[in-house]
């Protein structure tokens, strides 16, 4: 701490000295720095609506998580395919196998307890091994349907495409004009091809020919059968399936 010395001159010219009061800071106490004043803490406003909304969200999240875990753990027995079944062919008991899957509202497979309703029924589409069987995969009716006839057409080599025919394939059936046809063969001539749908394809015989089962309109069945018997039937593949 330092002292200030002041010098004053009296009336008679004599100089006098006196020590001034020690220097002090603005606070009046020399050498001491006061701490910063404490600011008042802001008061927190309670918002009961936000607290209630947060509690509801927590509860909903817990319920949703429980529901997901429960649905994932709940499994049901359904019908799956153990072998391929082409369209229109009967479904055998050996073609079906039990599968356990988690329940899903987006899936509608046939329950294993309902498998008897599919046995010996016809496949409404091409069924593949490993897929789940649904009600829509089983044909409600029979083949041939009303207004149709199922005819076996025997064709010789060169009278059908070398490309393998498949079920549900659209074809035309017509007759082949040959020299030296008998009267019986000439009698079965008809105008224009007949539209048909392939149902099944038989194996190739020793001569290279095969029999193809086709679905035709009832009015055309006799004509197609006559062409087949006369060995003049020709199968032409057209667009569409």
Molecular structure report:
Among the domains are: 75-137, Type Iii Antifreeze Protein Isoform Hplc 12 (Alpha-Beta Complex), CATH 3.90.1210.10; 148-237, no CATH class. The chain starts with a strand and ends with a strand. The strands form three sheets. The chain has a five-stranded antiparallel β-sheet with strand order 5-8-7-6-9. With 241 residues, it is α+β, with helices and mostly antiparallel strands. The protein has helices at residues 48-73, 183-187, 221-229; strands at residues 5-9, 15-19, 75-81, 96-102, 148-155, 170-175, 194-201, 210-217, 233-237. It is built from three helices and nine strands; from the N terminus they run ββαββββαββαβ.
Task: List unreliable stretches of 5+ residues.
Answer: none
> Counting H and I runs of at least 4 residues, what is the number of helices?
3
The number of distinct β-strands equals: 9
Radius of gyration: 50 Å
Gross morphology is elongated
Q: Give the spatial strand order of the biggest sheet.
A: 5-8-7-6-9
Sheet of most strands: 5 strands, antiparallel
Distance between the termini: 112 Å
Q: How do the SSEs run, as a string of H and E?
A: EEHEEEEHEEHE
Proportion of residues in β-strands: 15-25%
- Share of helical residues: 10-25%
- Mean pLDDT across all residues, rounded? 80
Structural class: alpha+beta
């Amino acid at each position: 701490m330092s002292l200030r010395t002041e010098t004053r001159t009296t009336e008679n010219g004599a100089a006098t000295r006196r020590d001034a009061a020690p220097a002090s800071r603005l606070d009046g106490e020399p050498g001491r720095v006061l701490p910063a004043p404490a600011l008042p803490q802001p008061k927190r406003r309670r918002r009961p609506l936000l607290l209630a909304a947060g509690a509801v969200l927590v509860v909903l999240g817990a319920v949703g998580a429980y529901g997901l875990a429960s649905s994932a753990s709940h499994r049901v027995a359904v019908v799956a395919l153990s072998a391929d079944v082409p369209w229109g062919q009967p479904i055998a008991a050996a073609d079906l196998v039990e599968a356990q899957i988690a329940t899903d509202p987006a899936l509608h497979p046939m329950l294993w307890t309902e498998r008897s309703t599919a046995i010996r029924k016809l496949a409404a589409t091409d069924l593949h091994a490993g897929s789940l069987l649904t009600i829509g995969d089983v044909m409600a009716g029979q083949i041939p349907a009303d207004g149709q006839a199922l005819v076996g057409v025997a064709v010789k080599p060169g009278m059908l495409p070398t490309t393998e025919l498949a079920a549900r394939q659209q074809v035309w059936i017509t007759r082949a004009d040959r020299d030296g046809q008998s009267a019986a063969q000439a009698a079965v001539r008809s105008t224009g091809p007949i539209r048909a749908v392939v149902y099944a394809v038989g194996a190739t015989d020793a001569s290279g020919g095969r029999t193809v089962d086709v679905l035709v309109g009832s009015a055309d069945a006799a004509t197609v059968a006559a062409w087949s018997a006369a060995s003049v039937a020709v199968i032409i593949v057209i667009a569409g399936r």
